[in-house]
Amino acid sequence: MTSSDRSQAVDEKRSYEVRTYGCQMNVHDSERLSGLLEDAGYVRAPEGSDGDADVVVFNTCAVRENADNKLYGNLGRLAPMKTKRPGMQIAVGGCLAQKDRDTIVKKAPWVDVVFGTHNIGKLPVLLERARIQEEAQVEIAESLEAFPSTLPTRRESAYAAWVSISVGCNNTCTFCIVPALRGKEEDRRPGDILAEVEALVAEGVSEITLLGQNVNAYGSDLGDREAFSKLLRACGEIEGLERVRFTSPHPRDFTDDVIAAMAETPNVMPQLHMPMQSGSDPILKAMRRSYRQERFLGIIEKVRAAIPHAAISTDIIVGFPGETEEDFQQTMHAVREARFANAFTFQYSKRPGTPAADMDGQIPKEVVQERYMRLVALQEEISWEENKKQVGRTLEVMVAEGEGRKDGATHRLSGRAPDNRLVHFTKPDQEVRPGDVVTVDITYAAPHHLLAEGPTLMVRRTRAGDAWEKRNAAPAQPAGVMLGIPTLGVPAPLPAAVSGCAVPASS
Prior knowledge:
The chain is of the alpha/beta class. It contains 16 helices and 22 strands. Mean pLDDT is 87; it is low at 1-11 and 476-507.
């Protein structure tokens, strides 16, 4: 923020709340929005404020069909609260804001600020301008004004962090509106990325997730086809960085040098989330996905040959226009062959502005629902069988915060194995902090988690745990960003709606 911008910062400690919907990119952007607001003098509202803040920011998603209804429903609930609270402000940003622009203010005239995906850094200034001029400020940039990682941030975790390596997407998947809203791919320079990772590690972070709409296309903007594998290897040289993940790659760009880098870099975790979308070659062609079933399964075979214990997950769309029962059976076949640890499966959602929305052969909802249930049942069976193979293994688990909703009642703690499987384990006698690492024996498997019911074999206190302890020993801070998405770790791949750019988003 420039000095002139700072002069417009709020004079008093006004509270803010950020509500986030959608993909990991939005989650990361919300950390930046929180950092910008705090840099401008705002303070975070307590958890559970439910609109009882001076500024409420919606960071929206445009992927799912009900995204519009969800936003306007939430805005409607805030309207009477704003009437009762003079000075309260509401801002709407993200992909839906980029898409709808002036429509938001027309439908919800009590909104004060509308900003897009390319100019999140303007939020504090737009809020102040709206307050002074007493009218809505709508500002949508057509191209990126500042790479998100150059902005202030308020990270949600002391021990794990997102690191954005690119923004935008060069793909043209027919079901996806995101490239039109996020723009063409722009890559950060490797030195800037590694400098950010090193700074995070110096703060105590021990796990980072490299983030991009199409993360393994990294380098296309730099003219280096092996830039992503080089980046993974460079992360392996950073002392103190224990775990490296990335999300989400596109099969088109998943090359052998990336597989080799994953296998040969010790801190790159044996985990891969790679969207398949469909197992039918005709449907993949209609989706403009530039691979076919054989190519996709071939990548998985290579990954498992190089990394035998890799856990592989995916996204799948059911009921894309024109999908026949034979097409659906090809998807079922691919799922049986791939044996995903888990799959985020979704019924096709028509989005205005995408080519698929106008295609012939839209599938009746009851047919889509029936196929969807068959696919979910098959994947549930496979997930359970794959998890049962973990029983008897000794695993290092990074303790997480807020992963086990029943931990208090069961006297357990929870965390993530190297392959990102969720593990609940018996709480040891000694203190264990989020970010610390425990060694446990897996004794039981369910479809979506593992149990270690015996005693903890070892507790390793870490710098990440120290960072968590330091953060929580500080004067009480209001709780974190109110995310409108379910979480599977901090940060970890989230339950996904199909984005087409291979970054999962919530429904």
